[in-house]
Design a protein that fits this description.
Helix content: 25-40%
Number of strands: 15
Largest sheet: 11 strands, mixed
Number of domains: 2
Strand content: 15-25%
Shape: globular
Structural class: alpha/beta
Radius of gyration: 19 Å
Distance between the termini: 43 Å
CATH class of the largest domain: Alpha Beta
CATH superfamily of the largest domain: DHBP synthase
Order of helices and strands: HEEHEHEHEEHEHEEEHEEEEHEH
Bound molecules: threonylcarbamoyladenylate, magnesium ion
């Protein structure tokens, strides 16, 4: 307990000095910086090698703090009350008087915001005088980090501090819903869109393709382990690692299970670390069996499809 508090203090010290710090969230680790400071924001883009036109998500402790920066609406309040803190990101209209650095949104007047659930991250946010911009803590187009050691693999000593919060509970990024107009899903994620539709009592359109200029980060190649990956495979080639979700009678050396019991939540939690592990073991190609396309399975399939564009 004491060490958690002193770690949070350490993270705050670096952030106050406008350095970037990696933070744990319930979805994936973030590379965080003061959202009001262009110095912090520019160093996030530099460290990630991220194009400046790909906007960042800003993380808040609660709705009161958000109101200083964004206009809220009825759909937002319904979803906030039901799911926050949790794995959902909202795109809202930015207020003129907001102090958010214009580099966060590439001068756009719409801001993506999120209220993360991880207790350590929440404690940190509560103690800060500013919200935190935080993209996933990985080099652009690569696999996101789901534990502190992944972040170190991605950035080495280039970042000042990693606030360790253990392994991420969900393991894939938040679901993004644009609420600036008619609600639209911009990214599949940790929260099932059926649950969002249930709260809003209507069907929501989904625009997650690369032509979508609204979320430029949804590029075709993304979430890549850095080696070729194919999906919906029935039988792997001899030199391929084979990623499975259903238990087979016979397990060969190159078989890797996302989940032992065909559990999709478990599979999502293990997805990125398993792909990382396979790459580290020296495989040059990955084959993945068909993953059921329901619930968080839709998010897994979205990530695999993008990873396969290598
Ligand atoms: O779970 C998550 O959302 C993680 C954790 C760290 O919070 N963050 C994350 O951030 O996944 P990032 O930067 O890796 O992905 C954010 C996505 C990008 O595709 C970006 O283009 C989109 O959100 N985005 C950010 N701001 C936006 C905006 N104003 N309008 C539309 N899309 C936006
Ligand atoms: Mg990312």
């Amino acid at each position: 307990m004491k060490s958690i508090q002193s770690n949070i203090k350490k993270a705050k010290k670096y952030l106050d000095k406008k350095h970037c710090v990696a933070v744990p969230t319930e979805t994936v680790y973030g590379l965080a910086g003061n959202a009001y400071s262009y110095i912090s924001i520019k160093s996030i883009f530099r460290l990630k090698k991220r194009p400046l036109n790909n906007p960042l998500i800003v993380h808040y402790y609660n709705i009161n703090r958000l109101k200083e920066d964004c206009y809220i609406n009825d759909n937002f309040i319904k979803l906030y009350n039901k799911f926050c803190p949790g794995p959902i990101t909202f795109v809202l209209k930015l207020k003129k008087e907001s102090k958010i650095s214009k580099f966060v949104t590439n001068k756009n007047k719409r801001l993506a915001v999120r209220f993360p659930k991880h207790p350590i991250f929440r404690k940190l946010l509560k103690n800060l005088e500013y919200p935190l911009a935080a993209p996933s803590a990985n080099i652009s187009t690569r696999l996101s980090s789901v534990q502190a050691s992944d972040v170190k693999e991605e950035f080495g000593s280039k970042i000042k501090y990693v606030l360790n919060g253990g392994k991420c509970q969900i393991g894939v990024e938040s679901t993004i819903v644009d609420l600036t107009n008619k609600p639209t899903i911009l990214r599949f994620g940790g929260l099932d869109i059926l649950k969002i539709e249930k709260v809003l009592k209507k069907k929501i359109s989904i625009i997650t393709n690369s032509k979508n200029k609204i979320a430029p980060g949804q590029f075709p190649l993304h979430y890549s382990p850095g080696i070729p990956l194919r999906t919906n495979v029935k039988k792997p080639k001899v030199n391929e690692a084979f990623v499975l979700i259903k238990k087979r009678k016979i397990t060969l050396k190159n078989y890797y299970y996302l989940s032992k019991k065909n559990n999709l939540k478990q599979a999502a939690k293990n997805l990125y670390s398993l792909l990382r592990k396979i790459k580290k073991e020296g495989y040059k190609m990955i084959a993945v069996e068909k993953i059921p396309n329901n619930g968080i399975g839709k998010t897994i399939n979205d990530r695999l499809k993008r990873a396969s564009k290598y």
